[in-house]
Design goal:
Layout lengths: L5 H5 L3 H4 L9 H5 L7 H4 L11 H5 L3 H7 L3 H4 L1 H10 L5 H11 L7 H5 L22 H8 L1 H9 L9 H4 L11 H4 L37 H6 L5 H5 L3 E5 L2 E4 L6 E4 L2 E5 L1 E4 L11 E6 L24 E3 L73 H4 L28 H7 L1
Length: 428
């Protein structure tokens, strides 16, 4: 989004603001400073972002104050859940320094949604210091959530339609994402504690809340697939994936920056690694997230020693829903179509272990069939030159073979894997 002009960022619309209930408070009650006609004196001890103190807004908004500190927007617990899983406690000083430089700016206070644009995009008053009960979709929500969610929902990715809820329904983020969700008035999967990740706890929003007919007998595909597939498996289209994000400080300015190795379009279905009562699906769309073992190496060596603890192809809920999609045109558009499933040949060799639980060994066969050779997993190209299984599945050389494979030899590979011609010739 275009940055605001300096005057737009700071000037208060006195006439409009005087009608706002918050104008009953003197400026200094929130922003402190000194009473003076001299600018420098007036700004002494000025508090630019007073809502950083939850006690301030909480004096009146007691319901929000009670839960907001648990909101993922405020706590940023989702970041730490994943960082903690991949790191070890002794690495935390370096990781906390990294987090403060590169991640903490995504923290959100009351003012970042209801008075100004988020500081991560330059800040600035939205409408002359008026307090907006409902945040602006473009000035607040997608100002932060723009590169993926915003571009997908608004149809800004090349050759991909906007989400049908926006394109036809002109719906906004707040039509689905409620104040309770934003203010932290929700719980995680244990039913008691705050959520530690955006997919912890109940689905909010849930498609069935509006689309009650998906459970009716009139829609055969919904009845046949039941809860095996998330809605996005059939109703999402191409979305963005990214590789290799690295963070550092500029040698010239000292300012933090990041860069990614690549951004590209994907639509891939993988296994659901977050399967629970709230998300019972066997298959979900997966998106490559840009974390790499060396993402934080500017701050120290080997800061993510447990990198393989979480997948890099992660559960995704793309915001580009369509009623009709390439994969729901016919049964065969999905069944037996290896191109749209996350199989090992689509995963970097260094990330195979991390994504073991997400990768499909076989893709669903043609409708009515349990499987066929055409739906078997093709081995990655880099396997073509050596005698297969034992080259990877040995102690110290990669994941150990499962116990039920112990008596197998390389010749048995062909019972599960359709081998490239070069390997077939070697085996013969």
């Amino acid at each position: 989004m275009a940055p605001l002009e300096p005057w737009e960022k700071a000037l208060v619309d006195y006439e409009a603001y005087s009608e706002d209930v918050h104008s009953n408070f003197a400026c200094s009650q929130c922003h402190a400073g000194q009473q003076s006609e001299d600018k420098e004196t007036a700004h002494t001890d000025l508090i630019s972002y007073p809502s950083e103190d939850p006690e301030l807004c909480g004096k009146c908004h007691t319901d929000v104050k009670a839960t907001f500190s648990d909101s993922l927007h405020a706590s940023q617990e989702g970041y730490w859940t994943t960082i903690n899983a991949r790191s070890v406690p002794e690495n935390h000083p370096e990781l906390e320094e990294m987090f403060g430089n590169h991640c903490a700016s995504c923290h959100t206070s009351c003012g970042d949604c209801h008075v100004s644009q988020p500081r991560s995009v330059g800040g600035g008053l939205i409408e002359g210091h008026l307090f907006k009960k409902t945040p602006s979709m473009t000035r607040n929500c997608t100002a932060c959530h723009g590169s993926r969610v915003g571009n997908e929902f608004l149809g800004k990715n090349e050759d991909v339609l906007a989400d049908v809820h926006f394109r036809q329904g002109r719906m906004k983020c707040t039509d689905c994402h409620t104040g309770a969700e934003m203010h932290g008035d929700v719980v995680g999967n244990d039913g008691e504690s705050p959520p530690n990740h955006r997919y912890d706890g109940g689905q909010a929003p849930r498609c069935e809340s509006c689309h009650e007919n998906v459970t009716s007998d009139d829609i055969q595909m919904h009845q046949m697939h039941g809860e095996k597939l998330s809605c996005q498996v059939c109703h999402s289209v191409t979305y963005s994936s990214c590789d290799g994000c690295h963070v550092a400080l500029s040698e010239d300015t000292g300012n933090p920056f990041f860069r990614t190795e690549g951004t590209y379009s994907t639509f891939l279905i993988g296994r659901n690694t977050r399967q629970n009562e709230q998300r019972p699906y066997d298959y979900v769309p997966v998106r490559h997230i840009p974390v790499a073992p060396t993402s934080y190496q500017y701050y120290g060596e080997d800061l993510l020693p447990n990198f393989d603890a979480l997948p890099t192809w992660a559960y995704a809920t793309p915001h580009n829903i369509q009623r009709n999609t390439p994969q729901n045109e016919s049964c065969e558009a999905c069944h037996g179509n290896a191109e749209i499933f996350l199989t090992a040949d689509k995963v970097a060799e260094s990330e195979l272990a991390a994504n073991f639980a997400v990768i499909l060994e076989t893709v669903p066969g043609a409708a009515g069939e349990s499987g066929s050779s055409s739906s078997r997993l093709m081995l990655p190209d880099h396997h073509a030159g050596f005698p297969i299984c034992l080259a990877c599945h040995l102690e110290g050389g990669g994941p150990a073979m499962p116990e039920n494979h112990a008596e197998h030899t390389e010749a048995v590979c062909t019972s599960c894997h359709t081998l490239p011609e070069a390997v077939e010739e070697q085996s013969n």
